[in-house]
Structures are given as C-alpha cells and as structure tokens.
Write a structure and sequence with these properties.
alpha+beta, globular
Length: 52
C-alpha cells in the first residue's frame, strides 16, 4: 500500500469484518457495477475509487 499498490482482498475483508474473500470480491464487483470503483488490471488491488 505504501508503494502505490492497493490493499489485497484479504486486507479489505479484515478491515470491514468479512472473512470470506469471495464475499469481499462480490461486494467489490457490486461497487464496480455501479461505477463507484474501477480496475486498471485483473486484480482488485488495482482498483480506483470513483471509476476514473
């Protein structure tokens, strides 16, 4: 995170209280579908807030 990389799915889950990585990925997919975040690569640690 300190070097321009986003948090991992596990780190996001730990922060929001979800232990299942699939639940975290589902929630991130919902946010992406609504245009609230976007990914620049395949992984979720490449997502950006705002869909820009």
């Amino acid at each position: 995170m300190e070097h321009g990389q986003g948090p991992t799915v596990r780190q996001i889950g730990a922060r929001v209280g979800l232990s299942s990585t699939s639940s975290v990925a589902y929630q991130l997919g919902q946010l992406e579908g609504r245009g609230l975040i976007s990914r620049t690569g395949r992984g979720w640690n490449s997502c950006r807030i705002g869909g820009c």
